[in-house]
């Protein structure tokens, strides 16, 4: 009897401690000076940011977003002249791609078709439809079809799924990946701009996790039940992985696996993969030989013996030397988009990729 009382007392004490620490954790997340110090590149942080922005509404992120069952989110289709990004103009076609123009899966055999994958820089956050680099590239290549499949906030994992589900249906000649270093960390997340899928490495290769994608209203409805101690644990675990170097190793490895799967998918579809490094923020004015992100991408391209891999940053650096002024805070202005389009145009021309409709090109994917 005495032993039972002791066990019960210990159990009740542990319950008390659990409630106490849970209460303290919840208090930490509602006191701004403390909560602001608990912001990291991990799932619980992004989830808290999303919830704080959506307590009174259930959009995925922006008002033009729609829930997507396999990728988390994408743009609503058939939007017309929507004022966004401080009065910029946004349109989407019948499949939710940026711009009004629809592209048939049954393509024109006489036109080069170029598909572009990417994140918000490719999608065109903070610029209008006619100020994205895909738009400028279309103007530079009137005999081609440029399809912008960029989506804000996407990691390479979501881009791969989008490519497999939708991109290959367009039967492109060239698939361009607009690569930004910041997208690599997204490949380790299950929640970013919203809930998203995540690949993990298994014995069979890449395994998808994070399905099914929850509805926004369900996340908001049941948020009060989510243990804040779990969020604290997630943050501490993330810090430990970063400090040990495990985070960077996992990020690099999963990114390499995803990129290679992209290359294989593009090549199997009969198209040519082109990986393009896009500079952001202070990288734009960087005058060094290579940035950290460029070293990662070029090293991987060399390892896989990929033919078409280059950076647009030298174009920016050269123009900065000539006195050009670029926006190095946040997303690009139209000038940065035009510069990227010019760099891509010149690269495709130099590599004789603009005549792919007239001849076959062999792409090596044996590595």
Description:
A hairpin with a 3-residue loop joins strand 3 (82-84) and strand 4. Mean pLDDT is 93; it is low at 359-367. The chain has 367 residues and is of the alpha/beta class. It is elongated. 41% of the residues lie in helices and 14% in strands. The chain contains twelve helices and eleven strands. It has helices spanning 2-30, 32-35, 43-53, 120-123, 133-140, 156-165, 216-221, 228-244, 246-268, 292-303, 313-321, 334-350, and strands at 65-68, 72-75, 82-84, 88-90, 112-117, 144-148, 174-179, 198-202, 205-209, 272-277, 309-311. It folds into two domains: 1-38; 39-350, 3-Layer(aba) Sandwich (Rossmann fold), CATH 3.40.50.1110. The chain starts with a helix and ends in a 17-residue tail after the last helix. Helix 5 (133-140) crosses helix 12 and helix 6 runs parallel beside helix 9.
Under CATH, the homologous superfamily of the largest domain reads SGNH hydrolase
With strands numbered from the N-terminus, the spatial order across the biggest sheet is 6-5-7-10-11
- Total domain units: 2
Q: Given the helix and strand composition, which structural class is it?
A: alpha/beta
From the alpha carbons, calculate the radius of gyration and give it in angstroms. Answer: 23 Å
CATH topology of the largest domain: Rossmann fold
Oligomer: single chain
How would a crystallographer describe the biggest sheet?
A: 5 strands, parallel
């Amino acid at each position: 009897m005495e032993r039972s009382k002791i066990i019960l007392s210990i159990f009740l004490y542990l319950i008390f401690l659990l409630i106490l620490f849970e209460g303290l954790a919840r208090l930490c997340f509602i006191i701004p000076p403390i909560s602001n110090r608990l912001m990291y590149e991990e799932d619980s942080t992004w989830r808290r940011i999303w919830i704080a922005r959506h307590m009174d509404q259930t959009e995925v992120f922006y008002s033009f977003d729609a829930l997507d069952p396999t990728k988390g989110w994408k743009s609503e289709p058939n939007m017309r002249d929507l004022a966004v990004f401080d009065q910029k103009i946004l349109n989407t076609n019948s499949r939710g791609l940026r711009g009004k123009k629809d592209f048939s899966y049954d393509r024109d055999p006489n036109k080069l078709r170029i598909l572009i994958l990417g994140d918000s820089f490719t999608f065109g956050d903070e610029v209008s439809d006619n100020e994205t680099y895909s738009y400028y590239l279309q103007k530079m290549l009137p005999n081609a079809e440029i399809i912008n499949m960029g989506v804000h906030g996407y990691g390479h994992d979501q881009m791969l799924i989008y490519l497999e589900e939708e991109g290959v249906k367009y039967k492109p000649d060239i698939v361009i990946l607009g690569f930004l270093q910041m997208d690599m960390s997204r490949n380790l997340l299950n929640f970013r701009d919203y809930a998203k899928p995540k690949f993990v490495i298994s014995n069979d290769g890449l395994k998808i996790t994070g399905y099914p994608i929850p509805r926004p209203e369900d996340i908001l409805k049941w948020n009060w039940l989510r243990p804040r101690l779990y969020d604290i644990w997630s943050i501490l675990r993330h810090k430990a992985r970063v400090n040990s170097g495990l985070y960077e190793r996992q990020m690099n490895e999963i990114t390499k696996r995803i990129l290679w799967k992209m290359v294989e998918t593009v090549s199997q579809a009969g198209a040519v993969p082109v990986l393009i490094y896009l500079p952001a923020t202070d990288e734009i004015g960087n005058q060094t030989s290579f940035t950290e992100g460029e070293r990662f991408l070029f090293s991987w391209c060399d390892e896989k013996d990929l033919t078409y891999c280059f950076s647009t940053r030298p174009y920016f650096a050269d123009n900065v030397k000539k006195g050009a002024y670029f926006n190095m805070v946040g997303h690009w202005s139209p000038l940065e988009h035009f510069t990227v389009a010019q760099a891509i145009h010149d690269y495709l021309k130099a590599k004789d990729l603009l005549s792919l409709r007239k001849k076959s090109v062999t792409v090596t994917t044996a590595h």
